[in-house]
Design a protein that fits this description.
The protein is α/β, with parallel strands linked by helices. The protein has twelve helices and 15 strands. The strands form three sheets. It has a six-stranded antiparallel β-sheet with strand order 2-1-4-5-6-7, covered by helices on one side. Bound molecules: adenosine-5'-triphosphate (ATP) and magnesium ion.
Length: about 375
């Protein structure tokens, strides 16, 4: 899916912004505070009804305005006409998602506009809590497996139910058996899908990281959230008294994680900042590559300040991947020339200058 045209209203310092992006590479440049990240945030809002920078809408909507709106014409690969999509939200919390004349829900929207964001938060895949890595895996499972969202929602409901019973401090043994059976059923289902996804992702991740970083001994392993040598029902039984005391369930997919090592050592502890950026980018690029192979259409990359932390050679390698992916990319940078010369002649690259919330297309000097 590519964005053919985009209209942004009342997002941060972007009061009204209208443009026709390239189907492939879009470079957005401008000085600090000009509004580059806000354009990426607006596209994120189009695909997920929220910002990637803040949970509080009041900071995202332009100061003093009642509503944020992003409207796009989406172009499906090989399709004739474009599909209109409009997402808006007002300060009272009312969200509207209109696609080709109908209301759609958030999960339909997320699968319609598959976004992959690479920004400073992406470092959290290495440095942050397991929940960040679970989100990373869940993005892949959601897009790879139609049944995942349903299984995940069912599991979450059972987990909440079990935890609230634990918090009461007393559970009827018969009721516990029923909930534990449900818990095990969905836990296994989710875990199979997550494991399958990581297995599929691994070859892409290793190949991409090797091209970006040279010969490195990287490994990626998945831990499902409990000791796989033990049946989960047995473990729940065994840990029941402890769970009761703590008021929550200790073992299960809610504790799943992913470990990345280099030369057998934690990548977080070993790698430099630039190397970390290459590893987390390789993870996201691998997700995109896998998505693009299985889906009818390509994903959309939002890459904030691509050159930061990277030398020119690594920037160029990164750009080569984006070029080969054929995905639509929105890439920000401060300097107009930072990424301009990294593309083949036949790649459709558009450059946009952002200046105080205003956008203008700039053409390469001959
Ligand atoms: N709710 C808001 N209403 C109006 N303006 C805002 C709001 N929130 C932030 N701004 C302003 O929007 C501008 C754009 O911020 P943005 O982060 O997009 O800049 P940027 O071009 O990415 O800068 P940098 O190069 O420093 O990353 C900033 O000047 C900021 O102060
Ligand atoms: Mg920025």
């Amino acid at each position: 899916m590519a964005i053919k045209s985009l209209k942004i209203q009342n997002i941060r310092n972007l009061s009204t912004l209208d443009f026709f992006p390239s189907h492939h590479v879009n470079l957005l440049y401008g000085v600090n505070g000009s509004g580059k990240t806000s354009v990426l945030e607006a596209i994120n809002f189009l695909g997920l009804t929220r910002s990637f920078r803040t949970r509080k809408f009041q900071y995202f909507v332009s100061h003093g305005q009642p509503e944020s709106l992003v409207f796009a014409q989406l172009q499906k690969k090989g399709a004739q006409g474009a599909q209109p999509l409009g997402v808006s939200r007002d300060t009272s919390g009312n969200v509207s998602i209109r696609h080709s004349g109908s209301n759609i829900d958030i999960s339909q929207l997320a699968s319609l506009v598959p976004l992959l964001v690479i920004n400073t938060d992406t470092f959290q895949i290495l440095e942050g809590s397991p929940s960040v890595r679970r989100q990373f895996i869940d993005w892949g499972c959601f897009h790879a497996d139609q049944g995942y969202i349903q299984a995940w929602r069912s599991f979450k409901r059972v987990l909440q139910q079990r935890n609230s019973l634990l918090k009461c401090g007393k559970i009827d043994p018969q009721i516990r058996l029923v909930w534990d059976a449900e818990f095990v059923k969905f836990a296994q289902l989710i875990t199979q899908m997550r494991q399958r996804y990581i297995n599929q992702l691994l070859p892409d991740f290793l190949a991409i990281s090797q091209r970006l970083m040279g010969e490195v001994d990287l490994s990626l392993s998945f831990s499902p959230g409990w000791d796989q040598k033990r049946p989960l029902d047995e473990l729940l039984d065994e840990q029941f008294q402890r769970d009761l005391k703590q008021g929550y369930t200790a073992a299960g997919p809610q504790r799943a994680d992913m470990r990345i090592k280099i030369d057998g050592v934690s990548a977080t502890e070993r790698l430099s900042r630039g190397q970390k950026k290459l590893v987390v980018s390789a993870l996201k690029l691998a997700q995109g590559a896998l998505y693009n192979r299985h889906a009818e259409d390509g994903c959309i990359y939002l890459i904030d300040d691509l050159p930061s932390e990277l030398d020119a050679q690594h920037c160029q390698l990164f750009c080569q991947f984006l070029e080969e992916s054929e995905s639509q990319c929105f890439i920000t940078c401060v300097e107009p020339d930072a990424l301009r010369d990294f593309w083949r002649e036949d790649t459709e690259v558009k450059s946009f200058k952002i200046d105080d919330g205003q956008l203008s297309e700039s053409f390469k000097a001959q």
